[in-house]
Automatic annotation (TrEMBL):
Keywords: ATP-binding, Nucleotide-binding, Transport
The organism of origin for this protein: Desertihabitans brevis
Domain ABC transporter residue range list: 2-226
A GO term, aspect molecular function: ATP binding
Protein name: ABC transporter ATP-binding protein
A Pfam family of this chain: ABC_tran
KW NADP (keyword) present: no
């Protein structure tokens, strides 16, 4: 379980700085798809950066299975909106997906197997040897997803990952994400400003207010997912 307790983030500045997130608490169960929806500037990215260990909270704690996090945990993966800049352009798709596995010290055989499986899961088995720029935006974001899931993270953190693709690609990627989640059982924390998207993807939706951002309420989505 991912547990966020009384999280606060204040950016330094005049007059005591700017508090982007305040008093934020929630728990995400293992295997859950939890989305956070709120207007632009609400502090969603700030929240996710803290949860991912990329930014130190001013107050509060984040823990995974009872262990407080302190820096980016190995078992977390993050996918940002900006897929094009997150992929290494000079590396093949397979090499990009393999990168975190190399960092985690997996051996060559298991890396190969994991890359193959992740690419198959996102429907890109045939693109392994292409370069990212040879692919469409939607396909590049699939590569980013494959890279994130290849080492089987405990928690997949996604910040508006489909915000910069066209509507059809976005719908395809949403369905792909639901399928990946079904197949891998990964816990997903997903931030978006799009209410429709959050309802479509979620088990539960947390609605956040404008900065200082706090959770207004959490809604369970009763509809079965496709
Ligand atoms: P969202 O992702 O919901 O659009 P952000 O977390 O990006 O919101 O931003 C929330 C607020 O925090 C915004 O008003 C933004 O200007 C401010 N903010 C974000 N990053 C910083 C920073 N590094 N320094 C100061 N203020 C920041
Ligand atoms: P190189 O041939 O220089 O190793 P590749 O782009 O062919 O670079 O592969 C990078 C890594 O990704 C390989 O080391 C292997 O583990 C994995 N890999 C390569 N080709 C495939 C493929 N078709 N399907 C799945 N994984 C692959």
């Amino acid at each position: 379980m991912l547990l966020i307790t009384d999280l606060e983030k204040t950016y330094p500045g005049p007059n005591g700085g700017f508090t982007a997130v305040r008093g934020m608490s929630f728990a995400v169960q293992d295997g859950e798809m939890f989305t956070i929806v709120g207007p632009s500037g609400a502090g969603k990215t700030t929240l996710l950066r803290c949860v991912a260990g990329l930014s130190a909270p001013t107050a509060g704690t984040i823990s995974i299975d009872g262990v407080p996090i302190d820096g980016p945990p190995r078992e977390f993966a993050v996918v940002f909106q900006d897929y094009a800049r997150s992929l290494m352009p000079w590396m093949s798709v397979a090499k990009n997906v393999e990168l975190p596995l190399v960092k985690h010290g997996s051996d060559a055989r298991s890396r190969r197997r994991a890359v193959e499986q992740a690419l198959a899961e996102v429907g890109l088995a045939d693109a392994a040897h292409k370069k990212p720029f040879q692919l469409s935006g939607g396909m590049q974001q699939r590569v980013a997803i494959a890279r994130a899931i290849a080492y089987r993270p405990k928690v997949l953190i996604m910040d508006e990952p489909f915000a910069s693709v066209d509507a059809q690609t976005r719908a395809d990627l949403e369905d792909l994400l639901l399928k990946v989640r079904e197949e891998t059982g990964t816990t997903i924390v997903f931030v978006t400003h799009d209410v429709d998207e959050s309802v479509y993807l979620s088990d539960r939706v947390a609605i956040v207010t404008r900065s200082p951002s706090r959770i207004d309420r959490i809604v369970s989505i009763p509809l079965p997912h496709p």
